[in-house]
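My current task is to audit a protein record that another person submitted. Thanks in advance; the entry in question is below:
***
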Amino acid sequence: MRIRSITFFMNPRWPLSELAFQKAGIFTQDAKQVFSASGYQVQSIRLATPPFPEFLSADYSSATTQLEMLAHSEGFDYAALGPALPDQLASYAAIPEMLANSQILFFSGHMTTPEGKLSLPAIRACAEVIHQAATIEKNGFANLRFAALANVPPHTPFFPAAYHQGKSAGFGLALEAADLAVSAFSEAASLADARSRLIQSIESHAQKMTETGEKLAKTYSVDFKGLDFSLAPFPRYEFSIGYALEKLGLSALGLSGSLAAAAFLMDTLDQADFKRTGFNGLMLPVLEDSTLAQRGAEGVLGVTDMLLFSSVCGTGLDTVPLPGNASVEQIQAVLLDVAALSSRLAKPLTARLMPIPGKAAGDETGFDFEFFANSRVLALPALPLSGLLTGNETFSIQPRAKQA
């Protein structure tokens, strides 16, 4: 198990406070050393700010360049500038240029309002960002740094969803822990044993990391937000959450029985006792997991399957390779489903979709990136919407009331 990110949450204010960046840099460098000394490899240190429309000047391009320089100078590997906001639609339109002019900055866009309502204009705006961002870098790679958010709260340590809220600075840990499930399920003699092994493993690591986190928080007078045990994978089979699920007895993830396996794993994670922040859901990023990438290439696993799994466990649609000719309207339809599912189930979901220019469904993805496993472009089961669903309304979808 590794720490994918120590994510520091703060408000850098405007004009940007160099002292705030320096303090954040000192803390995260020390935290990296402390967690490393405790036996955990730390993959990256990251910075997350409030939604950029709330604190940056209107000249976003110049402001983000300055912020990127300050973050990089203090040793941050990446920085997330938070989501565009439904009541400031122009903020979505600014994101493609900011992506094009940066290397380490991540962005997102809310599809839901602070009251949890679905915003049709914001959903379309997110689709437009994804469509435009696909042409910025080779193979549509810039969309790795953008996600559409549905009901995602602050202080999620995983990027691109991370953003800050409030006055006090704090930090959380995003954990790359799929190997814990692989080990637990490979050695188990029964479902009960599999559950017990995984809970014990999670709680053991969580206790150790929480004790370290609380000590750091006290020393530096910052808030320790907690752990995000979303069991994130790495593209090798021993770190594959898809492989872990198949060890429960699936012939191939995506076939019938997969939903039950995903629900079992998520229910097990829910039963573990630790200080939580972020999703703490089953993360199924197609291109970051060797098994998911393979099943996608085989045609066993598709976009609709991933959305189905999100109904019982997931964080949404993540690093999903799509045809390069996907239209704004088709992407909009997919995002609307993600936002509706999120609201109906009262759970945070995201969509990080990656149309690849020049590629069609079934083509090899062709990425040269150590954190991706190559797959094939997935078919996009969407046509443009029409009528009432394409309006400018904001509306509610309430979670289903519990039956007496």
In short: The radius of gyration is 20 Å.
